[in-house]
Structures are given as structure tokens and as C-alpha cells.
Amino acid sequence: MEKSSLDDLVRQQLALAQAASSGRSAHTVYGGHGQVLRHTLLALAAGNSLDEHDNPGEATVQVLRGRVRLISEDIVCDGRPGELLIVPQARHSLEALENSAVLLTVAKSGDAYPAPDDRRS
Question: What is the dihedral sign for C-alpha 40, 96, 50, 108?
């Protein structure tokens, strides 16, 4: 069993995001490329964003600090700490309205992985 302090990760990742030329930083809290479920802590300095991209599966964004804006097509949804945003199954972007940290949870769709018999060792 493992335990992580999201508060500590938020502080660390926000500092990294503010120092980065891209204005963002990310840390995988749980999961990875070979797993269906992934939790990633994303930090964005105010005014920075994740450009429009596709959704690799079901996803949510839990706002831990700051304020963010999730945009998909003509739908705009602002989020504040404690709010959970459901990411639409469409191209979308995420903007930081102020220094922000979110926990992105993604469960990749079944076709993103080969069936157990098809996996190569």
C-alpha cells in the first residue's frame, strides 16, 4: 500500500510550473502507460493552458487549488477547489485562470490496450 500527500505535491508542482517556460508541470500519482487507470497531478501557472487535445478515455478533473476553465467546442465550465469536472468525450482544453493544480483521473477506453492474449512480453 502506498500513500501520497496531494498537498505536498501541489506545492511542489506549482513551484515547478511557475519556474517552467511552459508554465506547467505534471506528476503521475498513480498508474502509467501500461494501466487503464491513471491519476496525474497537473499544475498550471496563471494564464497557461493545456492546448486542445483528444480524450483518451473517461476522465475527470478535480480542482485542488486555483481556478481553471475546461473548454470543449462551445461549452465552457469553470472549476474551483473542491469541484469535480467531467471531461467531455470530445476535443477540449484546460486553462488556468490563476495559479492552479488539478488531479486528472483517466480510465483509458478498452480499445487502448490489447487483449491479454495479444500482449507481447
Answer: positive
- 48: closest CA among 13, 5, 83, 11? 13
* Neighbour-count burial of 61, counting CB atoms closer than 10 A to its CB (0-12 exposed, 13-18 middle, 19+ buried): buried
Residue written as grid cell 508554465: 23
Domains along the chain with CATH numbers:
26-109 (2.60.120.10)
Digit-coded pLDDT (tens) for 24-49: 999 999 998 788 899 999 999 999 99
Pair 98, 38: CB distance under 8 Å: no
Residues 87, 104: Cα–Cα separation, whole Å = 9
Cβ pair 63, 102 in contact under 8 A: yes
pLDDT in tens, 58-101: 999 999 999 999 999 889 999 999 999 999 888 999 999 999 99
